[in-house]
Write a structure and sequence with these properties.
By secondary structure, the chain is an alpha+beta fold. It is built from 13 helices and nine strands. The protein is globular, with a radius of gyration of 25 Å.
Amino acid sequence: MTSDARRQALHAWAAARHDLTPEAVRMSAVADDASFRRYFRLHLEELDPATPARILMDAPPEKEDSHGFVAIARQWRDAGLPLPEVFAFDEALGFLELEDLGDTPLMTALTSTEHADHYYGEAIGLLEQLHQLPPGNLPAYDDARLSAELELFPEWCLGQLLDMPHDRRYAAWNKLTGQLLAAASAQPVVSVHRDFHAQNLFLHQSASQHQTRLWIIDFQDAVSGPENYDLISLLRDRHWRWPEPAMARWIEQARLAALPRYAAAGLPAPSPLEYRQSVERMGVQRNLKILGIFARLTLRDAKPRYLTLMPRFLGHLREGLAFCPELISFTHWLDEVLTPALSLRLAEECEARDLRLANGERPEINLDDYDELAALADRAARLQRNAAAADTAKSAAASGESKESGESKESAANADNQPGSH
């Protein structure tokens, strides 16, 4: 069935559910996404102001399996999570009718760090609710799946987009993969949304609520996996690059909430630095995967707009690597080889395809940002050195002898009372 034929069939199916003809009720396009799903709005409110509009999902069954979406929607709603209600599901046609959450994704409200503090605090609270749910029968986000996702980067970004499939200067890919998988497996296993970010969180007030709150959409790919995958998805998304103090604040909020899970899993409680490194290592895996997916969406699925997002995720990747000293050889390869090659290729593609950002500018990778990234890397290294030296410093302070020969006993006693001597 063609795209237009499916749209007509969806309109007829939805109208019939409300004892209407397609001519009697308007249906308008809402959005598509990186999958083969499309979304429309059925304007029932135009016929009766007391009847809310509905969202219609077109998910061709030969390309999209919607059973997971329906099952998760019902299970997570029953557990108290704010998800849209599924009113109808035609398995054979791949049509769904859903509760309409409106037109206000969280990304429209994140106009400042102060606003982000409020909403990200609420979003991290939602993650805590989600992570407390038993994963049940969710597919395992295990080594095999994480590794398969990582392979999208050399296959599509390097091999297909950049035509450099045999470049092995990116620091022993198998070793890098092993390091990232080991970091993921060291976390508690929880229910993972897997696409938890500001475009998939909506501000909505239902009829039974007295205030607007965040609601969750696009949850059909949920898995059972590492607990901080969703956190880094939220904090490093396609729209923003947040200041480091804000990132540290939000990640610490998540760490404190996660500590009971580490204890329940028999895992040692991570320090703030250890948890930050764990989150950023998970982000390295995710951002490499995303660069591969965006290259594939462009080249295989004819969705070149995803090229314009690649510089953002390359920047996220580089920022995360600043907290991963064990990946330094890969970081050098990214700086010296990948970034210049990808910058040149994106410039060529965007010129040929006449792609521009929303502000009219052509997307590019700003190499000047690396001054800021270098400062971030220096800060991370300093934190690591301080943490490693903490025990030594305490011992030296506790046993401290004055190294100044010829000092009087009174001077030595005074020195012992100075800040930092205990």
